[in-house]
Amino acid sequence: MTSTTPLTNPHATASSLPSLPSQFGVYSEVGKLRRVLVCAPGLALTRLTPTNAEALLFDELPWVEQAKRDHAQFVFEMTTRGVEVLELHQLLSETMEIPDARNWLLDRIITVNTVGLGVVESVHCDLNTFDASTLATYLIGGLSAIDIPEGYHNGAMDMIRTTPGENEYLIDPLPNTLYTRDTTAWVYDGVLLNPLHWPARQGETLLMKAIYQFHPAFAGAGVTTYWGDPERSWGKATVEGGDVLVTGKGTVTIGLSERTSRQGVMQVAQSLFAHGAAERVIVASLPKTRAVMHLDTVFTFADRDIACAYRPIVDGIKTFSLYPEDREGEIKVVRESVPFLNVISDALGIADLRVIDNGPDRYESERQQWDSGNNLIALEPGVVIAYDRNTYINTELTRAGVEVVELPSAELGRGRGGGHCMTCPLQRDA
């Protein structure tokens, strides 16, 4: 069972680092968003090539400079509406200013199994000469053998430099950090440190653990981790934040998807119940396909009583509810006899959940789902950010009384993710 020990670090000090208010917690999908974590496009996206894009989970190569401009607009739209936006490179850089944090993270990333025999010491020493900002850039963007100065040249490094393919990287690039939703998920008063499905993403959670454990904004906040630890092997138990919706009223909804497994869902539910963090977990069983990688690619909320849904998938969801049994650690599993949307309505106490679908025909509907049309991020009830290309959905949302803030989509969406995917809420009202 997950320890209730908070993620705190006795060596973390405020020193000269910026300190943030210590309130963290996410209590809904549409309440006022007050603080959020994003990751700006950077070095990691420039590492994508036609050769490695598929392995790094991108369907296409983004125009990185335009992606940076579009992401800056995304941040601007949130900050102008009162959302405090934290950026991953900046948080990691501030964390790497702390010597204990730097050593802790490098000891776990620079190992014989990751960089190989003969270069561990030289790579570790070289990285320790980098300033905090440069180090954070490489920890997210990847460290290629050619990034190591010639002064650390030896026979083993020569072999690495002349070996093509993935062995060129001493630290793998993490371009999917753009989609901060998946790595950690804040649920009510605590957080999940998610073991991610694909190897290309599994290094992301260790970076987040370092930030939560050492950065003074988090280390002094008494944050409780409900479940997950990137230093453990979780086998088939995987969970990604795009499948985790904080429905509210003591309920959490989790998608059983391509990337979130039954083994992971059951352990998360058990831990939430043990911590008294939830009374019910609704499980939405989804097709295991790339197009429907997470629940939030087919279903998100736009207002207290308005949801956006890709009906060809959502109407076919097999739904289960999990409840804590009287015996400690046991879970009661109930197969729901009504459709998924009805289960959600009942859980929220909404008599008539208004649902915006994707289009007038199956072609338009499928295209808008692929283009993240259902992947809305609510800034407050009835105000969402959505990609501009999904004109049908955005028009229908507007007709329903939702304010739609449109965001350029051509480059940011090439890894299959919209505003919901690109945000990890840290503080959101009920």
Provide key terms for this protein.
alpha/beta, four-stranded mixed sheet, 21% strand, disordered N terminus
Amino-to-carboxy terminus distance:
28 Å
Number of helices: 15
**Stretches where pLDDT falls below 50 for ≥5 residues?**
1-22
Give the biggest sheet. Answer: 5 strands, mixed
Question: In terms of topology, how is this protein built?
Answer:
Elements: E1 25-26, E2 33-38, H1 43-46, H2 64-79, E3 84-87, H3 88-96, H4 99-109, H5 112-115, H6 120-128, H7 132-141, E4 143-144, H8 155-161, E5 169-171, E6 184-187, E7 190-193, H9 204-214, H10 216-219, E8 224-227, E9 244-248, E10 251-256, H11 262-274, E11 280-285, E12 299-303, E13 306-309, H12 311-314, E14 318-324, E15 331-335, H13 340-348, E16 354-356, H14 362-370, E17 377-380, E18 383-387, H15 391-399, E19 403-407, E20 424-428
Structural description of this entry:
The chain has 15 helices and 20 strands. It has helices spanning about 45, 65-80, 90-95, 100-110, 110-115, 120-130, 130-140, 155-160, 205-215, 215-220, 260-275, 310-315, 340-350, 360-370, 390-400, and strands spanning about 25, 35-40, 85, 145, 170, 185, 190-195, 225, 245-250, 250-255, 280-285, 300-305, 305-310, 320-325, 330-335, 355, 375-380, 385, 405, 425-430. Mean pLDDT is about 90; it is low at about 1-20. The protein is α/β, with parallel strands linked by helices. A five-stranded mixed sheet has the order 9-10-11-14-15. It is about 30% helix and about 20% strand. α4 packs antiparallel against α9. The two termini are about 30 Å apart. A hairpin with a 2-residue loop joins β17 (about 375-380) and β18.
